[in-house]
Structure formats: C-alpha cells, structure tokens
Amino acid sequence: MKIRKIEKLLLLEQTGELSSRQRRALNACPVAQAKRDELKAFCASVPAIDIEPSPWAVTKIAARLREERRSVVSFSKVWKPVFLTAACLTLVVSTFDFNQTSPAPVAVAVAEVGVWSAQFEEDLVELESLILAISDSSLDIMEM
Amino acid sequence: MKVTDRERIRMDQDDAKLLSAYRKGDAEALGALVEKYKGPLYGFIYKFSEGREDADEVFQEVWVRAIKNMSRYRQKSLLSWLFRIAHNLMIDRIRRRRPESSFDVPMSPDGLALSDHLASGRLGPDKETGGRDLGRRIEAAAEKLPSDQREVFWLRMQAGLSFKEIAKIQKCSINTALARMQYALSKLRNELSSEYAELQEVGR
C-alpha cells in the first residue's frame, strides 16, 4: 500500500471513520504502525489554542439577541396594523369599483341596440315604399 | 482542549434543554451553552481573524446567528453547525473587506495571499518564537498554509471534527477534505523537516 493511502486511512482511523474493510487493509500493512505512531506524535505536538473570548461575550450575545427580538416585535407592532388597514382598503375599493362600473356597459349596449332597431325599421319602411313606387304591379312586397 | 484527549462534544439532550430553557427566558442557559463550546470555537475563529477584538465580534455574531436560526438547525452536532456559521461568516467578512481580492490569490509583490496577511498580522514569524518550541514552530508553519488546508488542519486539530463534518463545513467531499489535510501535513513536514525527523524517530 502506498504511503499516501496509509496516511489517509490513519487519518480516518483517528476520527473513527474507518470502515471494517479499510481497517483490515490497514492492519495488514507492515509500515502502518510506524506511521500511526509518527502521526500520533505529530498531533500531540500541535499546540492547543488556549485563548478565551472576552468575559463579557455572553452578556453581549444576550443583549444582541434581546435587541433583535425587540426590533422584530416592534416591527410587527407598527407594520401589522398598517398592512391590515391597507388590505382592508384595497378590498373595499376594489369591491366598490366593481359595483360601480359593471352595469354601465350593459346599459350602453341596450341603448345602442334600441337606436339601431328603430333606424332599421325606418329604413325598411322606406325601402318598401320605394319598391312599391317603382313597380308596375301592385304586388305585395312580401310576394316579391 | 486537544483533540486526542478531548471528549467529543455532541448536540445532546443537554443542549436541547439549554436552548429550550433560554427560549423560555433563562439567560443563564445561554451562558452555559456558550461556555460549553467557547474553547474550540473561539480558538478557531481567532486563528482566522485579525486579533482579539475581531475574533470577539465574530464569536458573538456566530452565536446570534445560531440562536436566531435555530429552527433551521438539522445537524447532529451543534459544534459542527457553529463552525459552519463561523466559516461562512469569515468568508463574507473577507470578501466585504477586500472585494477585489480573492482569499488565496496573491495580492502583493511578495506573493502572499490575503489569508497570509491576515495571519501574519497576529502570529509572529519563526524568528520571534525562536524556533525552539516545536508547538510554536508547527503553529507558525500552519499559518503559511493555503486557507482551505489551514482550515481543515485546525478544524481537525483544534476542534476535533470528523472529516465528514469538515466536508460539510467546507461544502466539499470527504475525499477533498482528506486530501487537504494530507497536503497540509505534507507541507508542514517539508517546513519542519528537522523537527519531523525527530517525530519519525519517535515512530520507530
């Protein structure tokens, strides 16, 4: 097994992420133990970062979280009634508009049909009289 | 806290109880939670920030975001989730500060990347540490690693996270996280060749 592969398996072994098949392969490798000890010695030499956050960190975090919560609450307190009122107004206005404008086109259409019918009747009578005037026989217009 | 002797910290019943208590108004519960995870989390943040004040600010922001978005929390380990928030936060901060610079692209004539500059501002070079203390030498050498490798190195060594957790934080595969760790170890080996020979002796 290549050294790089052994090291990869040893790293996985350290974190407990080694499969049983990989473990068997590692155990069968003659140089694995030496590399394991070397890696272990190296890891033990890596210094721990012994540094702590400010003693006021928790107080500051708590204060920021309180502030965030307060701003969310105040936002909803202010804007909720505004949004609600706006929604109500929109609903009222749209309903009002709908009731006002819908009968108008129908009335116009009925009126237009009425005018058109009266004119058509007049034209028809005029046409009938003209045909009668130019015809030799006094036939009924319907027989023509 | 060292990974070898550190007890694995998991999102357990205690964490859930503490969170629930905090939501009900128990301020001390938050303190207990922060106290529990402050060691590895703050150490990691400190490694990637511009000093104590900056690290404190990031540390607080991580907790504020974590508590605010707790309903979206789906992972087993709270610590791993905190690291994920810290990772994203630090990337955002670096991008905001230097929008024209990439984290790893060399930005100065000496060929150093932004990450190198961030690190070099705080930790002294080998000359300052004297080169006698192996731990200091490793720490100094690790600061020279590319950010991805450095992050895997400290997440593994300082926080004791598994490669599966590291892969989730870095949004990569386990094999990529492992490869980054191996590259980091390889570079440290080259950097600390004389000291590493001693370690090999220990291994024999």
Describe the structure concisely for a colleague:
The complex is a heterodimer of chains A (144) and B (204). In chain A, 77% of the residues lie in helices and 0% in strands.
List the helices and strands and how they pair.
The complex is a heterodimer of chains A (144) and B (204).
Chain A: H1 3-14, H2 20-27, H3 32-45, H4 57-101, H5 103-134
Helix pairs in contact in A: 1-3
Chain B: H1 13-23, H2 27-47, H3 52-68, H4 78-97, H5 114-120, H6 126-129, H7 134-142, H8 147-157, H9 163-170, H10 174-191, H11 193-203
Helix pairs in contact in B: 1-2, 2-3, 2-4, 3-4, 4-9, 8-10, 9-10
Oligomer: heterodimer
State the share of residues found in helices of chain B, binned by percent. 55-70%
- Our estimate of the beta-strand percent of chain A is under 5%
Going by helix content, strand content and strand pairing, the class of chain B is mainly alpha
Q: Give the helix proportion of chain A (percent range).
A: over 70%
Overview of the molecule:
The complex is a heterodimer of chains A (144) and B (204). By secondary structure, chain A is mainly α. Chain A is built from five helices and no strands. The model of chain A has no long low-confidence stretch (mean pLDDT 81). Chain B is an all-alpha fold and 204 residues long. Chain B has two domains: 5-97, Orthogonal Bundle (Rna Polymerase Sigma Factor, Chain: A); 120-203, Winged helix-like DNA-binding domain superfamily/Winged helix DNA-binding domain (Arc Repressor Mutant, subunit A), CATH 1.10.10.10. Chain B contains eleven helices and no strands. Chain B has helices at 13-23, 27-47, 52-68, 78-97, 114-120, 126-129, 134-142, 147-157, 163-170, 174-191, 193-203. In chain B, 36% of the residues are buried. Mean pLDDT of chain B is 77; it is low at 1-10 and 105-132. Chains A and B meet through helix 1, helix 3 and helix 4 of A and helix 2, helix 3, helix 7, helix 8 and helix 10 of B.
